[in-house]
Design a protein that fits this description.
The protein is mainly alpha-helical and about 260 residues long. It is built from 11 helices and no strands.
């Protein structure tokens, strides 16, 4: 009887994919398919990437980007949770605000760049405006879904036992809403990073986006790619951190207890 062929574990497949990508990247400019002046080999980019790690200016730019990301995400999540619980708990408010939310939600944050520059110039506040606007809707919609998913039997039972509004939110609404909220925050975290970098690229606010724009305009193509690579690494780190927090926060929930790494 033949032993079934066992496929490599997920992390090994992931590393193989990255190695294949880097190898393809290395070969494309070295074989002349693309001019190396526009796309330097991966080995050159990685060399600059690792040398950047020893530079204080590099970490200052990373810190500025992460400050805009963290503050914007915190403000957006706090406002979205409060408003989501208030709106979601009232049928009248849900109906009254539905059209307004559906009108404002699709507006891309980049459309607000002229307003951000007009109000705050090239400061951190411009980045915060874009990050907060884009992240807010991700969290708010998930909180509204979570409140709408509360079991009416459980809600009526809590009401019949004399629980007040705050106690019903704490013991009935919040446990149901929390998985939705964590999903919203994880999605918002990725969006917030995109907007934090976009603000630097277009507005010129301090951070990695601005450093990428300066490298591109100065003809430092390899440095530009190294900074772009840095933003990708930040995205991976943020996603892994958010998934870790989500698993720890929802370790009691069936969706996490039955989570299988594939």
């Amino acid at each position: 009887m033949k032993t079934p062929l066992r496929l490599p574990a997920g992390p090994l497949l992931g590393m193989a994919g990255i190695a294949g990508f880097l190898l393809t990247w290395e070969l494309i400019p070295r074989t002349g398919l693309v001019n190396p002046a526009y796309l330097p080999p991966a080995s050159d980019i990685l060399g600059i990437f690792f040398s950047n790690l020893a530079l204080g200016a590099f970490w200052t730019a990373v810190g500025q980007t992460m400050t805009g990301w963290a503050l914007g995400l915190l403000i957006a999540a706090t406002a979205a949770v409060i408003l989501g619980l208030i709106i979601g708990s009232s049928t009248f408010l849900r109906r009254a605000t539905n059209s307004t939310i559906e009108f404002l939600r699709p507006i891309p944050s980049v459309a607000l760049i002229p307003l951000a520059v007009l109000l705050f110039g090239f400061k951190l506040e411009s980045t915060l405006l874009l990050v907060v606007y884009a992240s807010f809707w991700q969290v708010l919609i998930q909180v509204l879904y979570g409140v709408a998913d509360v079991d009416p039997v459980a809600s009526n039972t809590a009401r019949s036992f004399g629980l007040g509004r705050l106690d019903r939110i704490r013991y009935v609404v919040w446990p149901t809403t929390l998985p939705y909220l964590m999903t919203g925050i994880r999605l918002a975290a990725a969006v917030a990073l995109i907007l934090a970098i976009t603000a630097g690229l277009i507005i010129g606010s301090p951070g990695l986006g601005n450093e990428i724009a300066l490298a591109q305009s100065g003809g430092a193509v390899a440095q530009m790619y190294a900074l772009v690579l840095t933003t990708g690494v930040l995205g991976i780190v943020i996603n892994m951190g958010m998934r870790f927090v989500e698993r720890r926060t929802l370790r009691w929930h069936s969706s996490v207890r039955g989570d299988v790494v594939v």
